[in-house]
Amino acid sequence: MNKEETSKKDFKVAINKLRKEKKAIILAHYYQTGDIQDIADYVGDSLALAQWAAKTEAEIIVLCGVHFMGETAKILCPDKKVLVPDLNAGCSLADSCPSDKFTRFVEEHSDYTVVSYVNTTAAVKAVSDIVVTSTNAKQIVESFPKNEKIIFGPDRNLGNYINSVTGRNMLLWNGACHVHEQFSVEKIVTLKYTYPDAVVLAHPECKSVVLKLADFIGSTAALLKYAVDSNKNCFIVATESGILHEMQKQCPQKTFIPVPPEDSTCACSECGFMRLNTMEKLYNCLKYEYPEIEVDGDIIAKAVKPIRKMLEISNTIAIV
Description:
By secondary structure, the protein is an alpha/beta fold. The chain has 3 domains: 3-89 and 274-295, NadA-like (Rossmann fold, 3-Layer(aba) Sandwich); 93-176 and 299-314, 3-Layer(aba) Sandwich (Rossmann fold); 183-258, NadA-like (Rossmann fold, 3-Layer(aba) Sandwich), CATH 3.40.50.10800. Helix content is 45%, strand content 14%. The protein contains 16 helices and 12 strands. It has a 4-stranded parallel β-sheet with strand order 2-1-3-4, with helices on both faces. Strands 6-5-7-8 form a 4-stranded parallel β-sheet. Strand 7, helix 9 (156-166) and strand 8 form a beta-alpha-beta unit. Helix 4 crosses helix 16 (297-314). It is globular, with a radius of gyration of 19 Å. It is an enzyme of class 2 (transferase). Its EC number is 2.5.1.72. It comes from termite gut metagenome. This is quinolinate synthase.
């Protein structure tokens, strides 16, 4: 066992000890590194993380993901201590939607229902009517009357996809995820030639030209389920490469190939923000109970309504 492996093993032992002592729960997103996913109590997409946070009885929630995920947990559990391994783990999509500009946009279209993607700051959620994730966005949008005027933000790619599958004409905010924006059509085509029997899986945050090449489009949870249930053995995956850890874990006999980004020779595509979290930072986070997520009380009071509304609707509709 090399030094790095020994270090990870030591951190795992220490983290497990602290977790029990402090009555903490560790929630990790699918885009986290494999070692963090493996030590987490629960691993899932944004919807699952919100659902687990909302019902946990743990005294401390450690959210291994990015900042807006920690905010969502804090909004749902204002009386609990919510920690993140690295406070600088942000989100390019959330950053593309500054709350002051989005608020003005909403005020200019006061007769519109505001549907905000979960990848937003607490302040943006506070001016929204409902929050959605990529898992439930289609079903929630379809729950509105067809003539409902809807603002959808901040992801224009997800918004365009939802418009195309629902026949709606939502007014879209012009934001995007830098990871999903950079997938190369040419490289996907090359991979399809190299692996002619492979199934192309794509996240709806990808550009429409990429989605046209996909055999299946869905959230990270949906992509994982499709791979597990499929009788196919090879998959080309167009989303953040962290999901491949769980795919390979559940389907060790299958092959998963990450789609390379357009401007890189790298064989994968990683979110630098997600990768800021490490086992060492997770250990320190639990030990010192820092960094802690703080959200203004007024923001919590406003933002919790659209989040709770999402969770309530998600419990009553069929999520495919």
